[in-house]
């Protein structure tokens, strides 16, 4: 596609349920990033993939959060046993750079997660 | 811990005014500083700065980096209502103990409102 796409765009779930958020990066982009953005704040780094390898997951808040990118393209961010504090906009970004200077990251429209 | 602080947090001006947005940072192993514009959707890339004292310019927008004093400014001249947005500053740094690139630490953003 022309840009980074994410699905679903909106997700409302009950506390305790698991959710899976999908990111489809720009075709051919090597690097993929997940961020979380609270209202009125800048994006907060969660994790980063170079091809299928998860290079950095230092931003994942706890072990309920996990991410994968098994074929080096589409990525899934999974949150298990959701809690109300997980409510936020989850954004994905991709860039064409690999392990060198990343340069411009292209952001997707985000998934707005609401945990009731 | 890497830290990026933007000021002011919000700014209201009239069309035609010139504005200066500030971004200061404290990071280990600095690689680059990036500016993004965020309207009611995904952040869009404006500039990437890696060297001190070299101004990047695009139309009415320009930016410069001072690596000695650890700050950057984004200038917008002859503002228009279409410039109204949140302006995000982000710093790319090499994570401690890691070898991956591309992790961005964002500031909280400056909300710019331009009135006709």
Helix-strand pattern of chain B: EEEEEEEEEEE
Helix content of chain B: under 10%
Number of strands of chain B: 11
Q: Give the radius of gyration of chain B.
A: 14 Å
Number of continuous helical runs of chain A: 0
Total helices of chain B: the number is 0
- Poorly predicted regions of chain B are none
Strand tally of chain A, please? 11
Reported for the largest beta sheet of chain A, the result is:
7 strands, mixed
Poorly predicted runs of chain A: none
Task: Please specify the SSE layout and strand pairing.
The complex is a heterodimer of chains A (about 120) and B (about 120).
Chain A: E1 5-7, E2 10-13, E3 19-24, E4 31-37, E5 44-50, E6 53-56, E7 65-68, E8 75-79, E9 88-95, E10 106-107, E11 111-115
Parallel strand pairs in A: 2-11
Antiparallel strand pairs in A: 1-3, 3-8, 4-5, 4-9, 5-6, 7-8, 9-10, 9-11
Chain B: E1 3-7, E2 10-14, E3 19-26, E4 30-38, E5 44-49, E6 56-58, E7 61-66, E8 71-76, E9 85-93, E10 104-106, E11 110-115
